[in-house]
Please model this.
Amino acid sequence: MAGFPYPKSDFTASWKKVLLMQFHDTMAGTALPEEYTVSHDAYGFAKEVANQAIYRAAEKIAWQIPTTDPDSDYLVVFNPHAWAAKLDVQYDLGWDFMARA
Model:
């Protein structure tokens, strides 16, 4: 839809890692200490796959927003929630206030 293929193989690989970490010793807190390092890395991998997919999708959507002034910088803000939200957005405009003084 947004112009790039759905990352099914990435999602499948990360989901398999998550499922592998869901065995009774880890969940009960009785696994060997090394297992917690392995599971931490596996969950980190899955989280990174999800974050990259979200970032790529938002980036592709932002690129499709028509801009009219080529000399202007545009800022696109996405609401990641499934509901309307009124939140503050912070952005560094890069203004050098000391140079203006």
